[in-house]
Specification:
Elements lengths: L2 H6 L12 E5 L1 H7 L4 E5 L3 H8 L6 H9 E3 L5 H6 L5 H8 L2 H14 L14
Antiparallel strand pairs: 1-2, 2-3
Amino acid sequence: MDILRFLMDADAPDVRRDLPRARFEVKRLSVLAGEPVVFTLQALPYGRVQDIRRMKEDAQAVHILLAGCAEPDLRSSELQQHYGAPTPLEAIQALLLPGEIEDLSAEIERLSGFRRRTVEEIKND
């Protein structure tokens, strides 16, 4: 297979837009709601990851979650108003426990290719 041709083929998936997605249940919120509370997370493109990495380390997990959470809309002004939060970041911190923020952020990182092996060595026999 001509790999370069595959990467440039018009029918090939757009790797910049077709980012992996997955759904994750937040167990504590599900117990409180009496039904599953599910967040839809998606991978982040390279440039967004680099922007977040330039931020202070203690705020990176919240920024990753804000950038990679497709559903629910964590930027919702209603959510901010409900929690009396001036910013979406503070609303997330009021809504979720620190461990939940870290776990959801870690899942976004995995979808983005971090925290797991994404390549495999080819050994010539």
